[in-house]
Amino acid sequence: MDMKDIYESPLNSRYASKEMKYIFSPDFKFRTWRRLWIALAESEQELGLDITDEQLAELKAHKDDINYEVAQEREKQVRHDVMSHVYAYGVQCPKAKPIIHLGATSCYVGDNTDIITMTQGLRLLHKKLVNLMDKLSQFALAHKDLPCLAFTHFQPAQPTTVGKRASLWLEDLLLDFEALEFQLSQMKLLGSKGTTGTQASFLELFNGDHEKVKQLDQKIAQKMGFAACFPVSGQTYPRKVDSQVLCVLSGIAQSAAKFSSDLRLLQHLKEIEEPFEKNQIGSSAMAYKRNPMRSERIASLARYVIADALNPAMTASTQWFERTLDDSANKRISVAEAFLATDAILELYINVVSGLVVYPKVIEKRLMAELPFMATENIMMDAVKRGGDRQELHEAIRVHSMAAGKVVKEQGGENDLLQRIAGDPLFGTTLDELKKLMHPANFVGRAPQQTEEFVAEHIRPILDRYADELGLEVEINV
């Protein structure tokens, strides 16, 4: 039922994908709890505890049909979510009831599920990053030869190409991708560590057999699809993990925000625009407006993720000894919402890159207005080759450049630098000869080659390795 009288996070109602919302949903959490209880019971049986195949079969038969009403009613009485679900599972599995959660503490299901949830979230972001890199590399290669005015300090600088500029956005994403893959490689389960991480309860269950207690961790990790558990812990997995994960998400947000800023500046210059749909309204007052609302949303959500990454950092730094509970409410909000927001950012980024509109004529006009200034070094070197004095020529170019700049800035006229140089006998050249130099492609250096090489050597191998993840379709809700 659509309830209009209670608050709902916009990340849920407006921005994040269904896939990411499910990963952080109660249903995913409680199903994972049951998978963990099954893994624990199976492993304990394999290591010699008196757990029957019939009990395991009963647990597996009810792993997905969660009796939420029973759990909710029980929680009202005992005020404990884990024990409420242990009870509810036991109602469905009367034969297995005595061995559910055997030897474990609440963090066995709570913390292991948090690790599994974050790992699944990272894998979904991994898929979206791969698709974004694919779209952006296609754009970069398609425009690798299109010269444009480059900027340093947002002031005109030596030309680059549209594709080369896109490769800078792509390189940021490559760094994020590498950080994400590294973080995925580091994800470990808490395992079965007990109340203070000493595994004392499990050592008691296995009659002091240390080797079996160690194997219990290994078996649970394997059954849940992980290479290992943390070798030591308190009651919880290290809260530093949350901080490390959100640092990766913050990195993605930073890269997306940088792209967003560049694109909004380019849209102001009318060189490149984000997609604008046929019936989209840019402004309620100014009907002609084409506001970059998707890029602005990227920037807005990115700012949230970057700030949110401070939450788990502060939580990790303030945990006491083997555990405190001042992490719970914070991480429940900060981790989930960081994933939902980053998911939304990547979907927006993919959508924008898939429909970027490039205006070559505007790009050329702006570049040609500035190119005479940038060609002066070549002009000067040619004059030196014809016997001119380098210092005299440099001073002459400086004077002519200042005068031409004054015409442009103060009088609103066209750049007449070439005419001034052609009229100066020091340079010994004609206007026609100077105009022949004014080919933008002569001034972009290795920009096209750099773009090709970067995509071929650094991006293509990733896209080939994860070819089965490509072809993702995204949809912007609002």
What does this structure look like?
With 478 residues, this protein is mainly alpha-helical. It is built from 20 helices and four strands. It has helices at 10-15, 18-23, 26-46, 53-61, 68-78, 81-92, 106-142, 162-186, 200-205, 210-223, 240-268, 293-308, 310-317, 328-354, 360-374, 376-385, 390-411, 417-422, 431-437, 447-465, and strands at residues 147-152, 155-161, 272-273, 357-358. The strands form two sheets. Strands 1-2 form a two-stranded antiparallel sheet. Strands 3-4 form a two-stranded antiparallel ribbon. The longest helix is centred in the N-terminal third of the chain and has 37 residues, at 106-142. The chain is elongated. The relative contact order is 0.11.
- By helix and strand content, what is the structural category? mainly alpha
Query: Topology as H/E string?
Result: HHHHHHHEEHHHHEHHHEHHHHHH
Distance between the termini: 20 Å
Q: Reading side by side through the largest sheet, how are the strands ordered?
A: 1-2
Gross geometry = elongated
Number of helices: 20
- Main β-sheet description: 2 strands, antiparallel
Percent helix: 55-70%
- Uncertain stretches: 283-289
| Average pLDDT taken over every residue | 94
